[in-house]
C-alpha cells in the first residue's frame, strides 16, 4: 500500500491567525526560541498499489484543486511517503 | 535563519471527518486512485540562528504540549528544514 504526502501552507503574504496564536502562546510556556510560526495542512493519501509517477501527478493535481485554495495557499510538497 | 517543521496527524483510531470529506470529494473530481485520506497539521517554526539539537528538543517538547493534543493526535515529525 502506497502513501502520498501533500503539504499545504498559507502563502507568505497571507495573515495566518493560527500561527500568530501559536507564536503568542509559546513564550508563555517557556519556549522563547521561536520568532515566527506558520500553520498549514498535511494530507496523507493512500493508494492500493505502489506510488507511480501517474499517482504523484494525480496527487499534485488534487492538491492544487481540492486540497488547497490557490488564492491563499501554496502546495509546498507532494511526495511518496510509502 | 533556521526553520523547524512539525507534523501532527490524528491518531489512526481517531475518526478524521476532514479526511473523510476529502476522500468523498476526490472521486467526484475524477480522482479515483485514493482509498483513504487523513488530514493533519504542519507547523513551520522559525528561529534566529541555526537549528541546534537544543532547538529541536524544544520544538519536540512544544509539539507534544502545545501543537498537538496527545489524546487524539500524534507528533509524526520534528525536523530541521532550514
Automatic annotation (TrEMBL), chains A, B:
<keyword id="KW-0658">Purine biosynthesis</keyword>
<comment type="similarity">
    <text>Belongs to the PurS family.</text>
</comment>
<keyword id="KW-0963">Cytoplasm</keyword>
<comment type="pathway">
    <text>Purine metabolism; IMP biosynthesis via de novo pathway; 5-amino-1-(5-phospho-D-ribosyl)imidazole from N(2)-formyl-N(1)-(5-phospho-D-ribosyl)glycinamide: step 1/2.</text>
</comment>
<keyword id="KW-0436">Ligase</keyword>
<dbReference type="GO" id="GO:0004642">
    <property type="term" value="F:phosphoribosylformylglycinamidine synthase activity"/>
</dbReference>
<protein>
    <recommendedName>
        <fullName>Phosphoribosylformylglycinamidine synthase subunit PurS</fullName>
        <ecNumber>6.3.5.3</ecNumber>
    </recommendedName>
</protein>
<comment type="function">
    <text>Part of the phosphoribosylformylglycinamidine synthase complex involved in the purines biosynthetic pathway. Catalyzes the ATP-dependent conversion of formylglycinamide ribonucleotide (FGAR) and glutamine to yield formylglycinamidine ribonucleotide (FGAM) and glutamate. The FGAM synthase complex is composed of three subunits. PurQ produces an ammonia molecule by converting glutamine to glutamate. PurL transfers the ammonia molecule to FGAR to form FGAM in an ATP-dependent manner.</text>
</comment>
<dbReference type="InterPro" id="IPR003850">
    <property type="entry name" value="PurS"/>
</dbReference>
<keyword id="KW-0547">Nucleotide-binding</keyword>
<dbReference type="Pfam" id="PF02700">
    <property type="entry name" value="PurS"/>
</dbReference>
<dbReference type="InterPro" id="IPR036604">
    <property type="entry name" value="PurS-like_sf"/>
</dbReference>
<comment type="subunit">
    <text>Part of the FGAM synthase complex composed of 1 PurL, 1 PurQ and 2 PurS subunits.</text>
</comment>
<keyword id="KW-0067">ATP-binding</keyword>
Amino acid at each position: 500500500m502506497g502513501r502520498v504526502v501533500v503539504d499545504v501552507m498559507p502563502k507568505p503574504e497571507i495573515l495566518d491567525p493560527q500561527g500568530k496564536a501559536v507564536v503568542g502562546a509559546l513564550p508563555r510556556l517557556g519556549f522563547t526560541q521561536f520568532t515566527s510560526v506558520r500553520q498549514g495542512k498535511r494530507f496523507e493519501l493512500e493508494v492500493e498499489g505502489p506510488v507511480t509517477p501517474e499517482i504523484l501527478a494525480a496527487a499534485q493535481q488534487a492538491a492544487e484543486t481540492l486540497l488547497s485554495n490557490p488564492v491563499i495557499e501554496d502546495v509546498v510538497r507532494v511526495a511518496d511517503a510509502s
